[in-house]
Amino acid sequence: MLAENLYKYNPIDDIECLFAGRQHSTERRSSNEVVVQISGKWDNMLLFFAWEEQMNCLHLSCLMNIEPEDVNLPSIFELLALLNEDLWVGYFSYWEEAQTPLFKHSLLIEPTDANLHNRLAQIINIAITECERAYPIFHAVFKQKISPRRALLPLTLM
C-alpha cells in the first residue's frame, strides 16, 4: 500500500511525451497543467491541459486565435449552439474574458488503461480537427459579420 502511494499517475507527463520532439512550444505551468502552442492551418492554437487528480479527469481546451470585431453575444451563442449540434465528442464554447472561441473536452482516466496513450492522441486530434473545421465559420461570423446559419451553409452542402 505504501509503494502504491509513492507514485501518483499524472497524464500531464504523457501529454508532454506526446509533444516531445515536435516543433511545438510547450510550457508546463504547474505539475497539473501544460500548454502547447501549435501552428494550425488558419492560425496558431493553444492546447491547454489540466489534470484534476481527485476526479481522475483530464480537461482539454483548444483555443483558437480569433477575436470578434464587435462582440455580439447572441450571434456567438447561436453559432456555438449550431456547431455543437453536430459534435459527438467535446463542445465549442466562448471565453468572454479572452474574447475567443475554444473547443473543450474532459476525459476520465484510469491509470491502468493500456490504451491511454492512443486515447490521448485521439482526443488531441479531434480537438485540432474540429477547430480547423470551425475556424473559417467563426471567422465569417466574427470578422465578416455573416449570420451563423449562413456561415454554416457551406458545411451543409458537403
Number of discrete domains: 1
The value of Rg in angstroms is 17 Å
Number of helices: 5
How does the helix and strand content classify structurally?
A: alpha+beta
- Under the CATH scheme, which architecture would be assigned? 2-Layer Sandwich
| SS strand fraction | 25-35%
Order of helices and strands: HHEEEEHEEHH
**CATH fold-type name:** Yope Regulator, Chain: A
**Spans of at least 5 consecutive residues with low confidence:** none
Distance between the amino and carboxyl termini? 56 Å
What does this structure look like?
The protein has one domain: Yope Regulator, Chain: A (2-Layer Sandwich), CATH 3.30.1460.10. The chain is built from 5 helices and 6 strands; from the N terminus they run ααββββαββαα. The protein has helices at 2-6, 11-19, 73-85, 116-142, 148-156; strands at residues 25-30, 33-39, 44-52, 57-64, 91-95, 100-108. The protein has a 6-stranded antiparallel β-sheet with strand order 1-2-3-4-6-5. The relative contact order is 0.16. The mean pLDDT is 86.
